[in-house]
Amino acid sequence: MNRLIDQYIRNEQESARAGKVEELAARFATRASKHDREGSFPFDNFADLKEAGYLKLTVPRQFGGDEISLYELVLLQERLAYGDGSTALAVGWHVGHILHLRTTGKWPQDLWADLCRSVAEDGTMINTFASEAATGSPSRGGRPETTAIAVDGGWRITGRKTFSTLSPILDRFVVSAYIPDEDCTSDFLIMRTEGVTVVETWDSLGMRATGSHDVALDGVFAGTDMRLSGKGADDGSGWLLHIPACYTGIALAARDFALEFARSYKPNYMNAPIASLPSIQQLIGEMEVELRTARSLLYSAADRWDREPESRPSLKPDLGLTKYVAVNNAIRVVDLAMRIVGGTSLSRELPLERYYRDVRAGLHNPPMDNAVLQTLASNALNEDGGAKS
Asked: 121: part of which helix (H) or strand (E)?
């Protein structure tokens, strides 16, 4: 295991899982360009993920899952994104949510058990749709315009959600809605029935195959037992590390493409490939600094989250920092890779231009850069004491 991507594999079990995911990633890489150009949802990839058991990786063992750790999830998500960033980011929301629900106990036990068994046996997937055009990202604290009105036996829910990743394939999902009678917001588990419409709006610069369309709800019924309290243990949102793992995976793919290009490309005025040039070696060195720094922080944060469950709430600033560094460094890595390859990197026949577009999407995944910086500043200012003379 002398490849950089293998650096954080710790044991034979992780190596075996990584090998299986690498096979999936290689298969997805052959389809990525087509789905990217069409903006089509990769149903074929998700059929392969289901068959491989990927969808149940974070499900508890008692329900038929593998119950992998956050560290292992990061390891596999990074490798999956090496082949196709869109597929990795999309499935990351599912496996990440399952991990989050597993560690927080937010759902009623009967609903949780039903979901887990369905994931393990049938390949069911889940995601939460909270973003709206008028309120923006839910992390900003805006009140949803989607409403839940009490009726006999449950609720009628009406509204429209944006950035609804996985919407083409889900048969159930969670939505946030405002309850006027109670002047509060709550989450509801929605089954995909009449009144649920996927509006195909997703036509983005990057991550074009995530199926992040709008979802419109027109008086959709949710039973009383489908209201989710949202109460549970505070896990510091460690599961969101699936996001930076995706972008470091893309950066690794760009880095490896650039290295192979530098080793093999020899202009007719040179006696050796461009990898021999000091200027190219400088760019490669800069790539290594950015990528190795990001991955060191990523795996360290995941490992600490796994080992210190009692400290998870206090890890939130460091988890946010991990995402901030990983995404911004990944953007820099892809930019450097394109400088090494030169103008050819702009060709749509090569994957670099897709990596360049996809990796920038990380800036718009939570937590946002300014929120991370504000959290870090607040923590610094609220430290006990000051400099001792």
From this structure: helix 109-122
**Residue where a domain terminates, one of 93, 122, 151:** 122
Residue 15 reports pLDDT greater than 80: yes
Q: What percent of the chain has pLDDT over 70?
A: 97
User: Is 233 inside a domain boundary?
Assistant: no
Is 208 in contact with 31 (CB distance < 8 Å)?
no
The Cα–Cα gap between 77 and 212 comes to 19
pLDDT of residue 242: 98
pLDDT by residue (tens digit) across 236-259?
999 999 999 999 999 999 999 999
Residue 385 lies in a domain: no
Do 259 and 375 fall into the same domain?
yes
Helix (H) / strand (E) containing 262: helix 242-264
DSSP 28-97: HHHHHHHHHHHT---HHHHHHHHHHTGGGTTS-GGGT-----HHHHHHHHHHHHHH-HHHHHHHHHHHHH
Are residues 58 and 172 located together in one domain of the fold? no
pTM of this structure: 0.96
Split into its structural domains, the chain has a count of 3
CA–CA separation, 384 and 381 (whole Å): 9
**What would the pLDDT profile of 93-138 be if each residue is shown by its tens digit?**
999 999 999 999 999 999 999 999 999 999 999 999 999 998 877 7
- Domain of residue 111, CATH code: 1.10.540.10
The residue among 140, 3, 191, 165 whose CA lies nearest residue 89 is 165
Residues 147 and 258 in one domain: no
172 and 50 part of one domain: no
